[in-house]
Write a structure and sequence with these properties.
This protein has 252 residues and is an alpha+beta fold. Helix content is 16%, strand content 36%. It contains five helices and 19 strands.
Length: 252
């Protein structure tokens, strides 16, 4: 794949940040070539039913279950990882015809089982958000929930992990996760990538993505795999493909 100058600069920035901050108890010998800047654990996320257009009254099931054999997008290999404390945070943006945004979870019903210990965070920078915990049982990581659609509009869904959000001044909050070892873990930085299994429809929502990039993410968003979308964004260090972004529309 050919990368533009903006994408090259984004990778350079990421590499510099991670190189300066990489640390951990892992050994210094690493037998793998890294495709990206760090270990990037790929956690698949799916929408059921899989569609771009839904109707008021429909229910979307967000399924993020996976086995403990987890794919590392950098080493391009699977590793058995047991008991990692994944802590997903999900947000939902709604846009009207004037391209004004509001918190989508206030306008629709969210059903998250208490077994995932969900915490509702109202009124943050990204609007309302829910932070939960995966359940690890019988060699599987379990997390799913439902969104009952009640309000028409255009939407952007995103899903990130608190581990990534804590990198930096609050990195001490990641001590539990950093202590988890697995065969093949190198002395490299670690990132969690919530990866949409189906079409994310991001290019159809490039104007909405650009808006929240400017107003909420301070031009941090970037695309690694879509040249057209990448040209629409600044060379930030938060990849939309690794942050569970997905666009959809709700009609009457």
């Amino acid at each position: 794949m050919t990368y533009s100058i903006k994408r090259y600069l984004a990778f350079s920035l990421l590499f510099s940040i991670v190189t300066l901050n990489s640390c951990g108890p892992q050994g210094t010998d690493c037998p793998y070539d890294f495709k990206y800047y760090a270990h990037i654990l790929q956690l698949p996320v799916g929408f059921e039913p899989n569609s771009r257009i839904y109707s008021v009254g429909d229910t979307i099931k967000v399924n993020a279950n996976l086995s403990n054999s987890i794919y590392d997008m950098s080493t391009e290999r699977y590793s058995t990882i047991e008991g990692f404390p994944f802590r997903p945070t999900v947000v939902l943006f709604r846009f009207n015809e004037e391209l004004e945004w509001e918190a989508g979870f206030r306008l629709n019903e969210v059903l998250i089982d208490s077994v995932y210990t969900p915490i509702y965070n109202p009124g943050g920078r990204t609007g309302d958000a829910y932070t939960s915990k995966y359940v690890y049982s019988n060699e599987e990581y379990l997390f799913d929930f439902e969104i009952v659609l009640k309000t028409p509009g255009r939407y952007l869904f995103a899903m990130v992990d608190e581990y990534d959000e804590n990198i930096g001044s609050t990195e001490y909050l990641n001590e539990e996760a950093d202590a988890i070892q697995w065969e093949g873990r190198c002395e490299k930085h670690l990132n969690i990538a919530y990866w949409m299994e189906d079409n994310e429809h991001l290019l159809e929502y490039k104007n909405e993505i650009r808006l929240i990039d400017t107003l909420i993410y301070y031009d941090e968003l970037n695309s690694l795999f879509d040249d057209d979308l990448e040209e629409h964004l600044d060379p930030g260090h938060r990849e939309v493909e690794f942050s569970g972004f997905r666009g959809f529309e709700v009609i009457e």
